[in-house]
Fold these 2 entries.
Entry 1:
Amino acid sequence: MKILAIETSCDDTAIAVMQARGTSIKTLAQVTASQIPIHRRYGGVVPEVAARAHAETIIPTIKEVFAQLGLDPDRAMKKPPIDAIAVTSGPGLVTSLWVGVTTAKLLAREWDVPVFGVNHMVGHIYSSLVNQKLPEFPMLALIVSGGHTEIVWMKNPTSWKKIGSTRDDAAGEAFDKFGKVLGFSYPGGPEISRRAEKGNATAIQFPRPMINDGTYDFSFSGLKTSGRMWAEAQKKLTPKLIADGCASYQAAIVDVIITKTVRAIEQYKPKTVVLGGGVSANDALRNGLLARTKHIKGVKIHIPEKQYTTDNAAMIGAAAYFTKNKFKSSWRSLAANPAFEI
Ligand SMILES: Nc1ncnc2c1ncn2[C@@H]1O[C@H](COP(=O)(O)OP(=O)(O)OP(=O)(O)O)[C@@H](O)[C@H]1O
Ligand SMILES: [Mg+2]
C-alpha cells in the first residue's frame, strides 16, 4: 500500500510517499520545505508566520513529491495512486497543525481513502524504523527533540508508557538556549555540535542534573543557567573557549541522557532500543549511546538516518503503518489536537 504522509506540526512542511508491505515501510519520495530561514530573524518560531508559510507551501510540496515519483502532478492531485493518508494531528502549534490536518481531510474526502491522525512523538519513535523491518518487542524509545525529552516503554507496537520525561526544558531547548547565549543563529543545536568537535569536553565541569536520582526524569534548566553564567563570566569568548564550552555543555546533556537510558535498559530489558527526535542528529549522543550499550547482551539499538531525526513526513507514515489502526480516523472527525499526549 502507498501512503501519503503529511507533517506540519511546527516549522517544516514535510511530505512523503511511503511504500508499506508486510513488516516494513520505505520512502519512495519526500520533500521537506524548511521555514528555518523565515523564523531565524525572530530568533524562534512565530506561529502565525509558520501557519501562513505552511498554507502557501503544502500543495506545491505535495505536487513536487508526485513529480519525484514520475507522475503528472496536476493529474495526480485529482486521482493519485495513494491508498491512505497519514497526517500529524498533534502535539504541536495549533495553527500549523490545522494546515496539515485540513489538507488531509480535504484530500481524503476527494480521493476517498482512509486517513490517520498520527501523534508526532510516536512518529519520532518510529523514525529509526523507516526503511527497516519492524524489530522485536518489547522496545524502549528515547525521544530527544526541540520540545520533548522522554523515555517510553513499549510492550508492543501499539502500546506506550512514558517512564520518564523532562520536568522543565527539553534537551533541544537546552542546546538552543546556550546557542543563543553564544550568538549562534536559531536553532543553536547543530552549531553547538559542530563547534564541540574542536573542543575539550572536560574543560568545564557543567552540572549533570538529576543524573543519580533514581528516576528516569530529566531537568535541564539548571544546566542552562550554568551555561549562561559561564559565558557571561568570560572576558572574551575566543573560538577556543567557545569550542571548549560547547563540547563541555554537550557532554553534560549527553551524559545525563545516556546514563538514564542505560539504566532503563538494564531495568526493563527490552529487545530493541530506538532513538529519535532532532537531538538524535547529535554525533556525541549517537556514538555515545552505541558505545555505552555495547556490553549489554540481547538488545539491538536503532539510530535514525540523519534525514529522519528532525521533523519529517516519512516517520509519520511509518508510525501510521506500524501502529495498525490505532490512529485511524475519518475525514469528518479528524481534528488538530495540539496537546495530544502519548
Ligand atoms: N546535531 C545536533 N545537536 C544537538 N541538537 C540538535 C542537532 N540537530 C538538531 N538539533 C536540535 O533538534 C531540535 C529540533 O528537533 P525536532 O525537529 O525534532 O523538534 P521539534 O519538532 O521542534 O520538537 P517536538 O518534536 O518536541 O515537537 C532543535 O532544538 C535543534 O537544536
Ligand atoms: Mg519534532
Entry 2:
Amino acid sequence: MRVHRVLIACALAALLSPAGTAVAGNGGFAPVAPESRNADAISQSFWFISAFALGIFLLVEVLLVLFVVKYRRRRRPRDADGAQIHGSNRLELAWTIGPVLILCVIGTFIFVKLPVVEDVPASTGGQENLVVEVTGTQFSWEYRYPNGVVAIDRMRAPQGRTVELHITAPDWDVIHSWWIPQLGGKFDAIPGTVNRTWFKAERTGVFLGQCAELCGLYHAKMLAAVEVMPGAEFDRWLAERADQQASTTSPLGEELWDGSCAKCHGLEGEGGYGPSIASSALVRDSEAVERLLRRGGIRMPPVGRDWNETEMEALTDYLEESFGS
Ligand SMILES: [Cu+2]
C-alpha cells in the first residue's frame, strides 16, 4: 500500500512539472505571438504539426489504458499465455498507409508555408526594402544601415516596411545565430557567409531575442532587441544618428562600450572576466587602445578589427571621457 502511495505521488509530481512551463508568460509551450509574416508561417507550422502529434498521442495513450484495463490478468494463473493472434491485413495496411499519408500532408504544408521565411519580398513601388547588415561578434550584435549609421545590440526598424537582413560574422570570430522569435526564424551568423532573411513588423514595439548558437563564455549576454517605430520617426532617428555620428555627441561610443567591452570588463570598467579598465593607464592612449582592439590580446579577441574610423574614434573618445581622469 505504501509503495502505491509513493508511486501515485511521483506520478502526480511528474504531471505537475510541465504546468509551470505551460502557463509561462512567454507563451509557455506555444510559440510567441508572431509579429511578421514569416514568423506567422513558423507559428502555423508549429500548430499544424502539433495537432497531428496530439491526435496520435491521445490515440496511443487512450488505447494503452483501455487495453491495460480490459486485458488485465484477473484470475488467470501468472504463467498462463494469452491468446495467440496472427496477422490482420486490414489493420496492418491501415497503420502503414495512415502514417505515410500524415507525413505527406505535413511535408506538403511545410514546403508550401515555410519558404517565406527566407524569401525576401521584392521592394514594391514607392517603398524600398531597408537593408541592414547584421554582424554577430563575441559578444554583441552590430547593425549597419545604408547611410553608414552603426548601432549595437538594439536595432531600430520602421513599422510596415520590409527590413532585409544580411547576417554574417567576421573572419576571426565564431558562429552566432540571429533569432528574434516574434520576427521570424533563426539564422546563423557564419564567418565568410552571408545569410539573408527579413521581417516586416505591422506593429510598433520592442521585440527581444538572443544569440541562439553557443558562441563562448558570454553567449548568454549576447542579447538582441528590435525596436519597431513608426516610419517617419525611424527616418528621423536614422538622420539624427548620422548627424550625431559625424559629431562628438554620438551615442555610438557608449553603445560599443556596453556591447563589446563591458560584457567582459564590467559595466564600470571594474574588471570581470577581462582585467579592470577603469584603473588602466592604457585608456588615455588611444593608439594603444586601437592596436589592442584591432589585433586582440592574449585572451582578448580582436573585437575592433573591422571597425571603421568612426567606430574606433567613438570608442576611444568614450573611454577617455569615462575613465581618462
Ligand atoms: Cu552566442
